[in-house]
């Protein structure tokens, strides 16, 4: 689970391209809809709408890195998830993990490889690459991976290069007093974890027994890397879906749909 917990965390966090998810205090959508200027830069009727949006996102990159509080856009650099609970009870993977202060640098360096927005059908398809990520988090965990017991508490860190994500989203319009708002109906995320390096685990457990387990597990996990990756990636994807949905829906609640991608100039 050592390196794989990292993969999982990197993925859900970063694909998610999110941050500071208030786990115990759900963020309130701002009361008054607020429409920043940049939202009217790309017109729905533009035959090159996708190119326009990619260009706009690239221009907004410095703001995305810092976050846009009025639009509920969380800070990307670094991206922080205060708390993350993982609980899986599958045949090959029984794990309870409690991760804290998951902090990831490099998410704002995302590259949009392709984008396909259909504003009439409210559909979006996007392919992203995250060239370079570095992450740190604290976690305690207990479980069995491929029948191998692991238990411990410590700090993880590591790098990951060239992570690829495909995102597909489907929206629906919701009527409110202030107008119609877009909300996500479904979102699918497929991730291909990148190359990992520089992976570190520093135990903060007082149990020698736990530490001994982790030492043995390291070797075991190295030998079963591919299998582990196949096991953990879907969990990372599911977690990403949860995080992304919450964040995207919060953002969409701040701006009426008619102000996103205006029909005409
Ligand atoms: C969270 O982790 C980051 C990076 O490791 C660190 O700078 C920050 O102080 C930590 N915050 C808390 C609340 O532990
Ligand atoms: C890991 O990422 C950090 C921060 O981007 C970087 O300084 C360091 O060189 C990277 N290490 C490796 C082994 O890629």
TrEMBL record:
Signal peptide: 1-20
Single biological process term from Gene Ontology: circadian rhythm
A GO CC annotation given for this chain: extracellular space
Keyword Signal tagged: yes
A Pfam family it matches: JHBP
Hydrolase keyword on record: no
Residue ranges the record marks as coiled coil: none
The entry's keywords: Biological rhythms, Signal
Similarity comment: family membership: Belongs to the TO family.
Protein's name according to its UniProt entry: Circadian clock-controlled protein
